[in-house]
């Protein structure tokens, strides 16, 4: 903020003083220069012949993909069911592991602030830092291809997400309610069930349906690396350039995701 | 029945919240603890049931030294000390009944409490208490649907279902309007009388304290500076506890109109 007084005594106000104004201009100049430089780099690396005929190719693939091969749906029911199972069971399995980890990670419930809490945080971070597709790649190699690998991949990836949101909810509870239950002579576990659990129930339910919704989307691609579900069909069709099948699969995935979003919105609405 | 000997609490920050408090409360006596904010009133009652661990000194309840109890025995001892809180501290998302029954947690096992399978005798007692505090029709409501005065009544029922010998009451009326405040204070004092309970009531409304209790303790910067009857609370004493103020004007007898309604 800059307030200047002119010779006749009027106070003039401007958002920035001269020095701030110049710094601001220089920052913009440097930012623009960096952007232009990077743009030039990308441009010289791009094979523009491929770029200019992209609309043509896209139109070509599009025309071959239309109309979708509706009859193919009969082979999609089972993989679709697998996908749904991977997402649902994966979410349940991840919650079983995430709830205790969240209690160990929350500052107000952890039995040990240093070793155990940091261990729990490490589990959360490592689970979150690896994409479920990578988890699936690893697990397909370890436990072989199929639905089970996908299920485990989804649950491992979800632990971090659920535990992180849940431990933040635990840290935000009203301690007075916990204090009141403690004062009755309740045991540690009773305090958890009566004092803490009711307070985090809405968060827990919200996190669960939110993650389930995300997992439906993630499990549709797991088949690409052999971890079961509808992605397996997708890869098969892509490999043999069966575009009408691909378009039907994409359509089915779209509908599945829409339905899951609708369900999770309904459930969250009912809880809050 | 309750004796405090040189009870002291120094917080890790270095603040001395309680300094050598000596106090003896006979059975059935209700006393008010007054003093300015930060005088250590909350710390004092929390040092008795060890929601706050006292740094030194002892608290003896019915001959048992509370300050040295191990975790299991402390839980047993806490059952004999009911606590009532300023902002009610009900578990908001549980029903009124569940909140009342939670006062019995020290007596039932984990699975019974988890599955809400409390003994029928406990449930009978919960209904009796809800009726006594005037909330028998509210048993199935969720705690967050109740008004302030109703919530504090649930808090009182929760404390009493513990079958305590002593009530620790922390600013029971601070969040309530003047009329409800008096009703709640009257209810607490009546119940103590009916059941022969001793009680320590933290309160910063001096006029309210004078209306209801036979003994007042003044706390200032963690030290006991007054112990006497309500009539001994002269303006000089109040100045000593709270600092300079025109006490004649502020503690004038509040008139007693429209108090009989429930």
Helical segment count of chain B: 10
Provide the helix percentage of chain B: 25-40%
What is the average of the pLDDT values of chain A? Answer: 87
Query: What is the approximate shape of chain B?
Result: globular
Helical content of chain A, roughly? over 70%
Order of adjacent strands in the largest pleated sheet of chain B: 6-7-8-3-9-10
CATH superfamily of the largest domain in chain A: MetI-like
The helix/strand order of chain A is EEHHHHHHHHHHH
Features:
heterodimer; A: 272 residues; mainly alpha; MetI-like fold; two-stranded antiparallel ribbon; B: alpha/beta; 6-stranded mixed beta sheet; 4-stranded antiparallel beta sheet; 10 strands
Sequence-ordered SSE layout with sheet pairings:
The complex is a heterodimer of chains A (272) and B (262).
Chain A: E1 2-5, E2 11-14, H1 18-45, H2 48-52, H3 54-65, H4 73-105, H5 115-129, H6 132-143, H7 147-171, H8 175-183, H9 188-221, H10 230-239, H11 243-271
Antiparallel strand pairs in A: 1-2
Chain B: E1 2-10, E2 16-25, E3 30-34, H1 41-48, E4 56-61, E5 64-65, H2 71-78, E6 81-84, H3 96-101, H4 110-114, H5 120-132, H6 148-160, E7 166-170, H7 178-195, E8 198-202, H8 206-212, E9 215-220, E10 223-228, H9 235-242, H10 247-250
Parallel strand pairs in B: 3-8, 3-9, 6-7, 7-8
Antiparallel strand pairs in B: 1-2, 1-4, 4-5, 9-10
Helix pairs in contact in B: 6-7
How would you describe this structure to a colleague?
The complex is a heterodimer of chains A (272) and B (262). Chain A has 272 residues and is mainly α. Chain A has two domains: 2-39; 75-271, MetI-like (MetI-like fold, Orthogonal Bundle), CATH 1.10.3720.10. Chain A has eleven helices and two strands; from the N terminus they run ββααααααααααα. A two-stranded antiparallel ribbon of chain A has the order 1-2. The model of chain A has no long low-confidence stretch (mean pLDDT 87). In chain B, 42% of the residues are buried. Residues 254-262 of chain B have low confidence and may be disordered. The interface between A and B is medium-sized, with 21 and 31 residues.
């Amino acid at each position: 903020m800059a307030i200047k007084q002119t010779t006749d005594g009027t106070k003039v106000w401007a958002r920035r003083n001269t020095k701030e104004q110049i710094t601001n201009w220089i920052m913009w100049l440097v930012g623009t220069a960096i952007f232009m430089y990077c743009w030039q780099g990308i441009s010289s690396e791009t094979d523009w012949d491929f770029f200019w005929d992209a609309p043509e190719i896209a139109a070509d693939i599009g025309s071959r993909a239309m109309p979708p091969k509706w009859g193919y749906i009969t082979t999609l029911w089972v993989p679709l069911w697998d996908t749904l199972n991977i997402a649902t069971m994966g979410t349940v399995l991840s919650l079983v592991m995430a709830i205790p980890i969240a209690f160990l990670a929350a500052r107000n419930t952890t039995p040990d602030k240093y070793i155990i809490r940091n261990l729990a945080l490490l589990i959360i971070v490592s689970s979150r830092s690896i994409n479920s597709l990578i988890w699936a790649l690893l697990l397909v190699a370890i436990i072989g291809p199929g639905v089970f690998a996908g299920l485990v991949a989804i649950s491992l990836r979800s632990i971090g997400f659920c535990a992180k949101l849940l431990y933040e909810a635990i840290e935000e509870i009203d301690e007075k309610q916990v204090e009141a239950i403690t004062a009755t002579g309740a045991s540690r576990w009773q305090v958890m069930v009566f004092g803490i659990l009711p307070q985090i129930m809405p968060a827990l339910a919200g996190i669960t349906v939110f993650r389930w919704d995300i997992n439906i989307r993630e499990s549709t691609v797991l088949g690409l690396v052999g971890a079961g579900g509808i992605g397996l069909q997708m890869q098969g069709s892509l490999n043999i350039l069966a575009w009408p099948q691909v378009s039907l699969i994409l359509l089915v995935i779209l509908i599945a995701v829409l339905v899951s979003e609708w369900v999770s919105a309904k459930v969250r609405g009912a809880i809050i | 029945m309750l004796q405090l000997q040189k009870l002291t609490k120094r917080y890790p920050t270095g603040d001395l919240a309680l300094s050598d408090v000596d106090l003896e409360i006979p059975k059935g006596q209700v006393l008010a603890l007054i003093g300015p904010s930060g005088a250590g009133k909350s710390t004092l009652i929390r040092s008795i049931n060890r929601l706050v661990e006292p740094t030194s000194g002892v608290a003896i309840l019915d001959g048992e030294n509370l300050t040295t109890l191990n975790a299991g025995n402390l839980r047993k001892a806490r059952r004999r000390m009911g606590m009532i809180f300023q902002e009610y501290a009900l578990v908001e998302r549980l029903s009124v009944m569940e909140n009342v029954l939670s006062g019995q947690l020290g007596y039932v096992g984990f699975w019974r409490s988890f599955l809400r399978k409390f003994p029928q005798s406990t449930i009978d007692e919960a209904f009796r208490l809800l009726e006594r505090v005037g909330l028998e029709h509210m048993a199935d409501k969720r705690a967050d649907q109740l008004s302030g005065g109703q919530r504090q009544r649930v808090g009182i029922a929760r404390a009493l279902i513990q079958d305590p010998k002593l009530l620790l009451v922390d600013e029971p009326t601070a969040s309530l309007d003047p009329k409800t405040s008096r009703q709640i204070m009257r209810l607490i004092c009546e119940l103590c009388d009916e059941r022969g309970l001793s009680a320590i009531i933290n309160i910063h409304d001096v006029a309210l304290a004078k209306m209801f209790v036979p003994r007042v303790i003044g706390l200032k910067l963690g030290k006991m500076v007054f112990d006497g009857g309500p009539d001994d609370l002269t303006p000089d004493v109040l100045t000593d506890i709270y600092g300079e103020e025109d006490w004649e004007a502020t503690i004038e007898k509040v008139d007693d109109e429209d108090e009989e309604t429930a």
